[in-house]
Every structure is written in structure tokens, then in C-alpha cells.
Amino acid sequence: MSSEIRIRESAVNGEIMVPGSKSHTIRALVIAGLAGGVSEIRRPLISGDTASCITALEALGVSFERGEGAIPFLRVTGCGGQLKKYEKTIDVGNSGTTLRILTAVAALSGYTTRFDGDESIRKRPMQSLLSAIHELGAGVKSNSGHAPLSVSGPLRGGKTMTDGITSQFLTALLLACPLAEKDSVIEVFDLHEKPYIEMTLKWLNDQKIVYARKGYSQFQIKGGQRYFPFTAIIPGDFSTATFPLVAAAVTGGKIVIKGLDMNDSQGDKMVFKILNQMGAAVTDRPDGISVAGGHLEGGEFDLDDIPDSLPALAVAGCAAEGETRLINVEQARLKESDRIMAMCTELRKMGADIRELDHGITIRTSELKGAYVNGHGDHRIVMALSIAGMIASGETVIANGAETVKITYPAFVEDFRNLGADICTIER
């Protein structure tokens, strides 16, 4: 049995608490898992992607205890850098972040560790990371630079280089190399998504990891270091907050989004600035960030640092007067789906005046109509098309992906219904 999402024209109003950051949660899980002792991660995101990371770390010898209450938490007993041998293949599900980070981390052990995932994972590029891991002393095998793959340690350190088409390659190396035997030097070229690297470095700084950097082009990491147990509160996820933010902006609603820290390193907080430039009223208040829709106008926006925002901002472009150009975001083609192609294809079915660029999308003001569209098995496409359905006449039904919202936003349909959206999940 499969499920679909049905949406009718509606607006959102009210208050919402967004879930914790997936990116912060996974970094916290990995560092806690490698530390010696017990760490406590408060308000973590519990979703499909983080569950995949937890399952993978358990296979490598890390244990977890989940606590509920006013402040949910995960208590993590780390392995002290001594990863155990796992005979079977670790299934990372749909989590590209887990695959990339744990491929490098698993290379620290003296064993062979195998990884695989779903159909989408098998399409994610891995070759640059695998080549870097090999240059640092580990053995690697893969399916032409894709999963299924295996790494055989130990990763010893040395000098290497990596492509930056996804920041996850560099993040994986930055997290693993401090535990290598020798010092490491990582050269980086064509780095995208720089705020995610700043997030990783913030975690390393908190752990007192010794490293030096030359901008974003070179990182020198001292080997023979270790991670220590910690207690941390995970901030709200700005990439998830993008969806209620855009929904309020395009439907003319007003919402207050709670649980966000505008001082956090997450790049997707830039979406609030973009929507404000387009005409939405965005106010940072003591009780949360207030967003009120209004007359939106198009513009040109560089999404190099925030590729996850492309699907939702494409919908905002439909509601904005004039032309909206979302540019410099070719890495959006390398996510769970080719998000540039997917949004152009599906919004065009709804009547959008939209054009695909090599590196982005151009959209002109469009009157959308309800349609039967394809979510491409991609949670961000599904959520963005749900917002499109809220400004389309008639009914919109999204097939192929309703269940994928659990990857980062398990309560998406319920939260939006509570805000006033005419949305539901239907079984087929």
C-alpha cells in the first residue's frame, strides 16, 4: 500500500515549533559515538535520516538510550574511537549525510566495513571522498564511485584533496582525521555549501580539536586527537523552517516560528532574508520569528550556500510578481533527486511559467492549478509541492514520496493541518 498527500487551496496562521536540526544532530551523534564516555544530546531530531545514523553507529559499537519528557534527549555511550567489526552491510537508508560521514569514520578502524542504501543513495556521488580516504591510507571499493561500497582501515593521515560539490565530503574528512595516527592536510577545490563547513568547525572547536585553515582551500589537522563526552542542545532546523516560512509568505498568512537561533551557523537562515527582500514581513521577536505574507516581488538569488531551499523558493517565485531567478545551485541536482529538474517538471504540470537552467531555475508569476504531481521520492520536493497546492485552484495530489517527509520532518502534515492548511495523507 502506498500513500499520497492531498492539498487544497488554503492559508497558514498560528504558531509552530520546528524540529531540531538534522545537520547538527548527525554531527552530534557521530562525535558522541567516537568519544569515550557518555554524552547527552537534548532536543535531537528523531527522523528517518537520524535513525539511519543511529543504527549505523550501533553497528559500529555505539549504544543509545532515548529519553522523553519536557526536553527529549539521547544518551550516547561512545566507543572511545575503538570501532567494532561489523560483518554485515550497514544500510544507511536514504541518508547521504550518514553515508558520507560514516564512510570516513569507519575507515579509522582496522576492519572492512560495507555500506549501502536505497535507490537514491546508490546515485549519490562518492568518488572524490573515496579517493581522499584512499590517499589517507585506507582501502576502498565501490560501484564506480557509488554505493554499495566498502572501506578497509586504518585511515592513517597524510595529504589529500577533495571536491567540494557537496560539503559533506569535507565534513566527513574533518570529523575523521583528528583520530588518524598522523597529521592530515586536506586541499579543497570548488567548495559549495560553506555554512555547513562552519557548522562542522564549530563542533570541532567545542571539542578543542587542533587544526589550522587557509580559508576554505586547505585544512591542516593534527592527528592522534580524541573526542570527549558532552551535553548539548540541538537548535531548530532552518532548512525545515523554510517550508512554513514560504507557506506563510505565499498564502498571505501569519505565523510565529519557534525554536530557531538566528546566531546559529545554519546557512538556511538566509531564506528569511530572501523572503523579506521579496516582500514578506519577517520579524525576530523574543517568542520566535514572525512571518507575515504580503505582496511578493521576484529577484535574483544565489543559492550556492543553501541548495536545500531551492524547491520551496521555486514555489515562492510562482507567487511573486515579475521574474525570480534561483542561480548558482547546480549541486541541487545531486540530492535525493535532481531537484532542479523535478521542480520544473512538476510545477509546469500545475501551470507554472518556469524554465530550467544548468545551474538553477527561472520562474515568472504564475496562476497555479491543482494537478496530480510526482514527489520524486524526495522529501523536500514533496513538501514544496504541498505548499504549491496551497496556492493552486482545485485539488493537488502528490504521489511517490508522501512517506519521505519522515526523513527530516515527521510531523509535517500534522503541523501544517494545525496551522490551517487543507492537507491530508491518503492511502492507495
- Give the oligomeric state of the chains in this entry, treating copies of one chain as homo and distinct chains as hetero: single chain
What's the tally of helices? 12
Structural class: alpha/beta
CATH level 3 topology of the largest domain = UDP-n-acetylglucosamine1-carboxyvinyl-transferase, Chain
Beginning-to-end CA distance, first to last residue? 6 Å
Could you tell me the radius of gyration in angstroms? 21 Å
Biggest sheet strand order reads 22-23-1-24
The structural domain count equals: 2
Mean pLDDT: 96
Main beta-sheet annotation: 4 strands, mixed
- Gross morphology is globular
CATH class of the largest domain: Alpha Beta
Strand content: 25-35%
Given as residue ranges, the uncertain stretches (5+ residues, pLDDT < 50) are none
CATH superfamily of the largest domain: Enolpyruvate transferase domain
Give the total of beta strands.
Answer: 24
The helical percent reads 25-40%
Overall CATH architecture of the largest domain: Alpha-beta prism
